[in-house]
Amino acid sequence: MSDTDNFLDDSLITTETTAPDSMAADQPMGGISDRAATRQARELSVGERPGTLTVREDSLAPRLFLISYDEQFFEEKEYTSYDEMLAFFHAHPQQRHWIDVRGYGDLPLMERLMQDFDLHPLQMEDVLGDYQRAKVEQFDDNRLFMVSRMTEFTTLLEIDDDQLSIFTGPNYIISFQDDYDDCLDTVRIRIRSGFSKIKQKPVLYLAYALTDVVLDHYYPTMAAIGDYIETLEERIFKGRADRRVLNRILHIKKDIVRFRRLVYPEREKIAEILRMPDDVIPEEMKLYFKDCYDHAIQAMDLAESYRESVSSLVDLYLSDQSNRMNEVMKVLTIISSIFIPLSFVVGLYGMNFQREAPDGTINRLNMPELYQPWGYPVLLSILVVIVAFQLIYFYRKGWLSNR
Amino acid sequence: MSDTDNFLDDSLITTETTAPDSMAADQPMGGISDRAATRQARELSVGERPGTLTVREDSLAPRLFLISYDEQFFEEKEYTSYDEMLAFFHAHPQQRHWIDVRGYGDLPLMERLMQDFDLHPLQMEDVLGDYQRAKVEQFDDNRLFMVSRMTEFTTLLEIDDDQLSIFTGPNYIISFQDDYDDCLDTVRIRIRSGFSKIKQKPVLYLAYALTDVVLDHYYPTMAAIGDYIETLEERIFKGRADRRVLNRILHIKKDIVRFRRLVYPEREKIAEILRMPDDVIPEEMKLYFKDCYDHAIQAMDLAESYRESVSSLVDLYLSDQSNRMNEVMKVLTIISSIFIPLSFVVGLYGMNFQREAPDGTINRLNMPELYQPWGYPVLLSILVVIVAFQLIYFYRKGWLSNR
Amino acid sequence: MSDTDNFLDDSLITTETTAPDSMAADQPMGGISDRAATRQARELSVGERPGTLTVREDSLAPRLFLISYDEQFFEEKEYTSYDEMLAFFHAHPQQRHWIDVRGYGDLPLMERLMQDFDLHPLQMEDVLGDYQRAKVEQFDDNRLFMVSRMTEFTTLLEIDDDQLSIFTGPNYIISFQDDYDDCLDTVRIRIRSGFSKIKQKPVLYLAYALTDVVLDHYYPTMAAIGDYIETLEERIFKGRADRRVLNRILHIKKDIVRFRRLVYPEREKIAEILRMPDDVIPEEMKLYFKDCYDHAIQAMDLAESYRESVSSLVDLYLSDQSNRMNEVMKVLTIISSIFIPLSFVVGLYGMNFQREAPDGTINRLNMPELYQPWGYPVLLSILVVIVAFQLIYFYRKGWLSNR
Amino acid sequence: MSDTDNFLDDSLITTETTAPDSMAADQPMGGISDRAATRQARELSVGERPGTLTVREDSLAPRLFLISYDEQFFEEKEYTSYDEMLAFFHAHPQQRHWIDVRGYGDLPLMERLMQDFDLHPLQMEDVLGDYQRAKVEQFDDNRLFMVSRMTEFTTLLEIDDDQLSIFTGPNYIISFQDDYDDCLDTVRIRIRSGFSKIKQKPVLYLAYALTDVVLDHYYPTMAAIGDYIETLEERIFKGRADRRVLNRILHIKKDIVRFRRLVYPEREKIAEILRMPDDVIPEEMKLYFKDCYDHAIQAMDLAESYRESVSSLVDLYLSDQSNRMNEVMKVLTIISSIFIPLSFVVGLYGMNFQREAPDGTINRLNMPELYQPWGYPVLLSILVVIVAFQLIYFYRKGWLSNR
Amino acid sequence: MSDTDNFLDDSLITTETTAPDSMAADQPMGGISDRAATRQARELSVGERPGTLTVREDSLAPRLFLISYDEQFFEEKEYTSYDEMLAFFHAHPQQRHWIDVRGYGDLPLMERLMQDFDLHPLQMEDVLGDYQRAKVEQFDDNRLFMVSRMTEFTTLLEIDDDQLSIFTGPNYIISFQDDYDDCLDTVRIRIRSGFSKIKQKPVLYLAYALTDVVLDHYYPTMAAIGDYIETLEERIFKGRADRRVLNRILHIKKDIVRFRRLVYPEREKIAEILRMPDDVIPEEMKLYFKDCYDHAIQAMDLAESYRESVSSLVDLYLSDQSNRMNEVMKVLTIISSIFIPLSFVVGLYGMNFQREAPDGTINRLNMPELYQPWGYPVLLSILVVIVAFQLIYFYRKGWLSNR
């Protein structure tokens, strides 16, 4: 939760300077133009040969983890050698195994995994492409290929999403992701702790547990977004919203919409699992997946709710902008309305109409006020009265209060 | 209805000061950023172990009520001891019972209830999580697990919703809620009064009656919202709408949308009940649930109607803002247009062109007006005429009336 | 049609003054806040006991009409005594009867009707609640309970809707409405005239004819709305649109949306009738109901069309508001741009730089213009040229024309 | 295409004056308020007796055409006497016939047609009502009743639509329309020319050809709308968009939406034809209707595309309006910002502070500048510098360029 | 990717001048009015005779390519004589062939192709019309007719789309397109290279490969659009957005919506292929098409994402426009508010109230300030203080910073 806390204090600007690449100064932060989408489009346009494995250039070097367990047994190890891991795996046919591959950056290794565990090239392509929507596919009769998308609200104030691909086998599952740190640690901890249900149930339960933990991780993401929206709202309310705030609003709006589009296929995926025959997904497991289904719907409801909030923020921002314009105009109007008439009056008595004509006759009608003993004080009083009336008028209109 | 009345008088500001935590001064009242959603997201992200009961920290200490009845029999009592209640329950197998649990804050008790009444851990998790959408699940052949959401329009001027979970059994229902006060009292009163249909029918009718009363309670919520919208509209019409009013409009809009999202699954739930086989829901009961279904649709229609109204309020607010700007500009324009030309004229006759050149020659063309005997009065008359023409012009344009 | 004509002349303001309760002066006319919805919500929240008849307080005292007919026979009478009517009814088992109940304000009578004609309490509750959406229910094998909503565009410039409930029996129909005047007179006239198809066909045809006449009555309602929208548009075009006009636009928009929501279930109702088995609705009758179905769709299309028009009106209003602002600004700009520079120039020659220094030396550079014989006329000419150039500039920009 | 060309030149205003009834001066051109819909609503509310034929008052006097043909035979004639036509028709039972009725204004003739060709009263009512959506109905086992709507973009710059009703029979079709000129001439020409497929195929093919030609006629309508939208866009771009342009935009938007609503049931109609059993529509004919189906979808896509364009035009118009306001404000700001400070400076040296006090003492501090020999030239230089700085500032802001 | 790079530098204006026909100066670039749609509508309205082949006038002269291959064999050649090609084709019945027709501009050749390969006239009409949505049709039992739309983001900064039509046969496919350059080269290269899967599989795989490559080509199109949107966003952020930028935004928005409408039937097409029986599409091929299906959905997701971005750009533009207005007003307000009061003050002391009345009496109250020795310096100090206060006020309001 610490990621989201540091914008709860009022140091949004500070946060920006510590995240130089995305939020520097006046540059757009890839705000509205959907850079993630563009990157994705570009990646997807690379591998044009169907069923041919290619690894994206920025993929991490793979790290192999193996968690082997049954009700009594437990061993967890990171292997540097794939063969060593495979040997251990084959040596324990009675145990259940979780082969946990993090990083795709070694094409030959990926191809060996594909062959050793009978994965389909098109599925493996989906794994390595890293931009696959959540889905489930049934293959080899009763094996499953499941893709989930893990989300995180990053310090760059945007939603980051990573792909988790899971293949099930008779006594193992293989999971792939291109990230060393993930949100699956709660599952690992539960396996390590002796009493978890995971140990007592078939590997499908482990696959379920991983799917469920990904779904559950949507909530902190949403909560962080909720906090962020609150910060933005406060910012507008304190009258400190400039167009960078609008940019952020539009940015997070886009992210929320994207999030919704991430979760939607997740729901479809689980609905499809629930429709699968009982020999693939036993009735008892369906009860658990039904629970997942409820969670997915709730996540979508939340996303919908935030989308609504963000749309309202845009309205609020625009109204605020208009409000400030109003205020500017009011200052101009008040000052002009008071002083322009006064200027006229004093200009009037700055005229040079001559009491004495060139021929010496006296024009008594030419500005006699100027020669009255009380002329000047009377005029000043009149000016004061004018101002007073105007101020009363503006006060009544409510223009003097700071609405 | 008293909750909604106190904003019908014009004391909206007073209402605010009496609700300091949510509406203080200039602070946003959690208006647009959906704090309820954020809280929900945070709660939901806590319990990550599926099927493991946890109790939210702010849960109330449980209070146990038992209403036992048949056509002749009636007993209603609050029990401090669960065992005592259970004893009474088992001692009356011929009667029908309503076990009414209010407050979740005692995990062991919750677990005992779960075991004694054969509730599924995942269902119990839904109960305690308190953020479950309305749904119905059939379990153990013909038992039902039903979740409803009870709504209320609070003095904080927002919609509050609580969860009511009902399990049916052969001769009992168990209801759970995390609130001591609820909207179910009308049902209790009907049971107490001797002649209620509830007493004559199986417990399913009681479950129906509770579902129905929750649905019926949506209408006063809606009516309160309707009154509130009317207050906001009047506020705009009296020209007293500042941005806090906009905030409230956006806030209530969000709440209405949320309300609609609450009711929608309620409708789905009842539709699912209507599709259930006749041995679970007898034909006669379906007639009653069909009535519920109509009510749910009507509630959604109302919500839709209010959503439309609130959207129009936003339009009205923005137009009003623009109107006020218009008014400000008109004042500026009228005053400037009148006095700036006048200032020029008086400035003209404030110039110092000399009739007598330094060499003593007379320049008769240099401002001869200044030496005319009627110069000043004629000028004043001209000024009056200019002003009169301008005023006529502005009057014709309709700028002087207060449109 | 006379209701709609009186706003076709330009007497909208007059119309207002004759409808004091809804359109007085500056008060909102319950415009945007959906008072009808609020009233409905409040009504619906009253009767919380399902299946218990209650009568709304403002219900009219019932009036009973009986039209009895067959191909030869015809008798029409208003009965003050229910028993008398029932006696006549039972005395003519060979005839077909239309029992026409107008006004609900007599609970015992309603209960007797319910018992004598075997109506279900829940259905009777729908009748008396008066807020039921259009629907059809099949009961007692082949009897029908049909609810229609009759609409009218009132002199208050809003859509009023009333409920018409029809029960069919073997040789009679009973209709309920809480209004003495209705739109069913065309049907009554057709029965009275000897040659109507109604007399030759079973009572179901009468039920159809009533349903059809309600649907047909949607068109004059729509036509009146269309005329009203036209009036509003003209109002905007004549530049006489103030915010009350916006209020009306938003009000009628809301009403149109509500109308659409009234008609939609009407369509669903007829679709359900068309799906009913042939022994309930004979094939021949379905042809007639199919015609109704087309009419319902057409009414929805019209409503949709008007909704679009009204949305455009809002756009037009807002643009008009912006236009008027533009005009105000142009006046300000033209006058300021012309006179502020002129004021500077005349101010320039109002300066007091002295040709003669205190020590008597002549500063020939200090404003020599003031001493030229043609100084003043030349300056005036220059001022005229400046103004001319500015006017040409503004003319070219098109700011002088009244766009 | 000539209808659409005359707004391609810049003579939109001319076009207006030549179409006085719809576009005169400042009057709304029935723009936004949907007069066609209102007329339709009013028409539909007239005939309230189902199955009773009535003819609209403005119906044309009927003209009867008969085209009779088979592979060898061809005869085409306008008949003034219905009996004569019927005689010819019955005398040629081996040929195929197209009875082409244009104009409905003769009720007895319509009734005779109905009886002689076994048409259903409700269908005939749909024909004469002239406001029926596109639909198809199967009657008398394998006869069809098809309604199409023909569209045209008129010189009044709006979409006009007429109804074409077709009944099929064993060796004839009857078509009804209330217009002497139509878009079916291409079909007639194809029959006249010896080699058309129409002559070789059963009459259903002729019905198809008529349906297809109506659909194909949607494209020139759309093309004309496209040209018109382009004209409107250019108008905005040349800065000559006043609110009449907005009115037209909103008007054409409404028309496009209406067009879409016309085409949608056309698609549904063809889809229903495709679902009909093979003995009604032979497999070979379905291939042709499938082609129609594609065309209907394409027409809807085009309409959708134009709707999008028109919405963008509204955005563009509003932005343009705002732009012009901006420009007005910039002129005001630049001129005011330059001359108001200058006016202050020259006003400063117009003050009358006296060097010589009344008692004769010299106040050297009172405006010594006025007595300097270079005072005036130095001041003028300062003024020039101030103006230069301001101009540079405004240039840098880009306010001087005409953005 | 080079097409998209040249707007990444800041030479958007240059790009315009190099594309004179579409983006010249101030003329609209066919921006909002959908010229492509209009062209399409016009084309479609030409050929009104169903099943009659016509070739559009601007069609290219056809070029014929034949690629013949099996696992061992490969020959690729452009034929100038159709007969020669046909001879080669018939001489190699054991090989698989790709007949690649580019350009439609030779009607007799098209008709020969239609007859020699048993293509249906209506299908051939779809090919030559060039505006067919993506679709698949099964004909002659198990042959397929597939239409795809190939997209490209052109240097004119809009999406161009071309039609690719494919007919399958037992051992050949025929592809039609009206363009010499296409996006299918990757497939050709793969066939040329010895080891492609295409060589090992039946021709259906080739048809799949072509479909897939078209789909994959959507991604670079999308990526180019993404880059373009980014450029537009930067443009707004640098404050250099004039209405041409808005035009571009609305233009690209329209294009994205059109793109979405292109891709949607593509998805439907593949869904239909997946539903085809196994003897038409073998199970193995369906796996590949399933992959296509995922890609189509992803392309639609991307388009949706960009549509959202572009909508946000419009918001940003409008807000920016409003912002600039704000800025203009602030400059005006600050300068006016400072100098108008000052002008009044100096005007005050420019008045000519006379100390000495005409009769020689001294009016001590008439502007005694003017005779004080420190009068002028004190006044200047007061003016400085007023300005200082105003600047502080404006600074506090934040109007001096460049928000």
UniProtKB/TrEMBL annotation, chains A, B, C, D, E:
Molecular function as annotated in GO: cobalt ion binding; cobalt ion transmembrane transporter activity; magnesium ion binding; magnesium ion transmembrane transporter activity
Region entry Disordered, spans: 1-30
Keyword terms, alphabetized: Cell membrane, Ion transport, Magnesium, Membrane, Transmembrane, Transmembrane helix, Transport
Gene3D superfamilies the UniProt entry points to: CorA soluble domain-like (3.30.460.20), Magnesium transport protein CorA, transmembrane region (1.20.58.340)
Pfam families to which the protein is assigned, alphabetical: CorA
Function comment: Mediates influx of magnesium ions.
Homology family: Belongs to the CorA metal ion transporter (MIT) (TC 1.A.35) family.
Designated name of the protein: Magnesium transport protein CorA
TM ranges: 331-351, 374-395
UniProt GO cellular component terms: plasma membrane
Gene name tied to this protein: corA
Membrane-protein topology: Multi-pass membrane protein
Domain of life: Bacteria
InterPro entries for this protein: CorA_cytoplasmic_dom, CorA_TM1_TM2, Mg/Co-transport_prot_CorA, MgTranspt_CorA/ZnTranspt_ZntB
The keyword Oxidoreductase is assigned to this record: no
Subcellular location: Cell membrane; Membrane
